[in-house]
Amino acid sequence: MHTFEAMNTTVVTLGLSPLHQNKAEKWFAFAEQTFSRFRPNSELSWLNRMAGRSFLASPLMYELLSEADRCYHKTGGLFNPYMGKIIAQIGYRESFDRLPSPNAVRAQVTAPKLPKNPACFQPDNSSITLHQDAEVDLGGIAKGWSAHRLAEMLQREGVSRGAVNAGGDIAVWGKENEHLQVEVDDPFHPGQTRLTLRINGSAGVATSSVMKRRWTNQHGQEYNHIINPWSGTSSRSDLAQVTVTAPDLVQAEVYAKSVLMLGAKAGLDWLSDVQPGFGVAGITTEGRLVTNGVLQTISVLSDQNGGVDHECAS
């Protein structure tokens, strides 16, 4: 197992040679410099400062943001990469481990009213024009996309089986009938495995939680980094954590956050309608495990707290 720090998280790789481990570290360092909201000289920071004007993007920025924009429209705005201003207003202005005193956090924020298309993409010259009130925050999708792209690069170079875990966003690849077990932590007991998933072949596994990046402002109001784009406030659903499996890690990341915001009943029903082949396992705020029963790419080997509710996906 190979571990290193990048993109404000711990990255873990499995099955890589020293040469490919070095490539993984360099790739994530490059991705962080491109997509970080916290680095003033990152390409993302320059894009945000150019809001309202045409910005000539690099191929990587254009590819990721256009993919994020497609997910924004496909989820009806539930996944929203244009929430940078709201995230900053509630206090998440820099890397979580360097957040200032919560006394600087506003008690109330107002979500900006964005047009139907917050960004205009010109594929002829890879230019992007953000609406003047939009600010991009790529957050988790950048980690998932970077892990997914690295997995693709490694496979092209002949690495037939492996895994990349970027802070809970996991790209797994291998031959059919080659199973890899993925352990999912209990959100209320970090370091303890709540359930184990058995992945067959290649898949993306993304876990999103409201329990990790949390803070309280001077009024005693609790915040987490999962922002509901419709209310402009942190997620307040009955789900504490959601894990989604999909053929593509980017899709798994997007739909894990979406289900987390919608809640157990509405979220699992919605996912069954829009992506019926995706697997989902959620942990409610009361500690209950809920799943949609999809076992095409995911098998629950153990639920150490006992109790699995399949009734949420009616």
TrEMBL record:
SUPFAM superfamilies tied to this protein: ApbE-like
Native organism: Paenibacillus lacisoli
Coiled-coil positions: none
Keyword Lipid metabolism: no
Pfam families found in the cross-reference section: ApbE
Catalytic activity: L-threonyl-[protein] + FAD = FMN-L-threonyl-[protein] + AMP + H(+)
Protein name: FAD:protein FMN transferase
Cofactor(s) annotated in UniProt: Mg(2+)
GO molecular function terms attached to this record: transferase activity
Enzyme's top EC category: transferase
Cited Gene3D superfamilies: ApbE-like domains
Keywords, sorted A to Z: FAD, Flavoprotein, Magnesium, Metal-binding, Transferase
EC number: 2.7.1.180
Statement: the UniProt record of this protein carries the keyword Transferase: yes
